[in-house]
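Hello,

Our lab assistant flagged a job as stuck in the queue for most of the afternoon. It eventually completed. Since we weren't sure the result was trustworthy after the delay, we are filing this so someone can double-check. Below is the sequence as submitted and the structure that was eventually returned. Let us know if re-running is recommended.
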Amino acid sequence: MSIWTSGYVTDVGYTFGFYPEMSPASLTGALRMSGHDVRLRDDFTYCELGIGQGVTAALLAAAHPEARFYGNDFNASHVLHARDLAAATELTNLTVSPASFQDYVNDPDLPDRFDVIALHGIYSWVDGKLRDAIREFIDRKLAVGGILYISYNAFPGWSAMLPMRQLIFDHGSRGTGSAIDRVKGAIAFVEQVKQLGGGFFRQNPAMGPKFDNLKAMSPAYLAHEYFNQVQQPFYFSAIAEEMSDIGLSFAASANFVDRFARRTMTAEQRAFLDALPSEIERESMFDYFANQVFRRDLFVRGSRPLAPGQANSAPGQRFAAVKPLSEMPEQVVTTTGAASIKRESGEPVLAALLKRPSTTEELVAALSGGAQSTLNVGHSLEYLLAAGCIVPALPAAGEEARSRSTEVFNRHVLARSAESSDLMYLASPVTGQGFSLSRIEMQFLEALAAHGGAVGDWTAPVWDNLRARNERLLKDGKPLASDEENIADLKLRGAEFVAKRVPILRSLGIVQ
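-- returned structure --
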């Protein structure tokens, strides 16, 4: 490893994921629901440190055409992909740099201050000198009133995982071939240790299922998570202290499931937390109840509080549905327990949002005949957010301009899906987030727009494309052999797509 990369894996590209917690609407929604009166101007500035393949930054830039987005990455292949994606989707508001964290702060092309700085995972993967450079960047570049999103591997949940990580790292470091080859070899080696009854797995029974989950993950992701020379989980209190030293204060968790997990604790546990004298202590102790493995934190450089009683209702905050009623779960399971909601409370809120994205006030007005109070609507919104049925949305103003920009981005992603499954997110002008579709669903959407008509009319071209590439559908883990079987299965999937996904896509402004 060169000094330039400081032990960070650069010989294999990172995954092509989109991280919804990093979207502006999600950031401000989480803050407002935590009592902070935070809003972003239309022309806000946003910087992602460690941009990876650039998928999140590019999608956000497409969904916020008046804002300016910047990012850096010291993997040259990442920078090239991010720049190519920006060019292919006609983005003029995304600038990507190959500068190191130490040099990036002095880049003359950067604005003086950013309204948002975000970094996903990278803080746990780089050494102390680079973390110092990251904090210097945040200190010098985050505006007053600005938002910092920082996610990182966390203690105490990572405590038992570090020995397994070291085993993977040590074996992979001695291996040969590409990083992907070494990942596969290391996983096979650890599997052998597990099958031979290694005492680590016997005395840490939770590690067996964790390792089984790990085996199903992308080798590219595992290379970055397990092959970096640095793997540093943090206690929340340590991160809070480091951010406090540069004038930032903890504001909220960016993850709606983690936020909801307080509701799934026992009454005694909640009372114990509430009795602690500071927010930092309460947040730190929550991690012990949750055995927290990964944190997504929001820090602010100053904020205005909402009026008392407004936090749960988040006045003016708009929400949008991303799942149909049939997929609303009966309970939400978190790291501290599970909680259910009365269907007569949750279903009307989700049904109203399926009709149109709405603010809390609009929901209360629309459901007033059902005796839905602001407090009840607020509780239902928290449940639906944690269940992944809804997401925070952008204001209605500016949606037309956002639609023009996201349409260009989505056309490129749909065209790319004919040959590749790397980009699996379409941009919504309503939420400013990505909406995930499978590769087949991407092709359904493109064929439906081109051909229309009955399901069989637009699933036939999808099959023609798959057959031309010698691809077959899988059913029960096995490929379907005949044309007739594949066409029949495509029709079934197509009918479900029209019934469940197309209405959501229309509501999100992805389909007109």
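-- support follow-up --
The delay was a queue issue, not a problem with the job. The result is valid. Residues 356 and 507 are 6 Å apart (CA to CA). The two ends are 49 Å apart (CA to CA).
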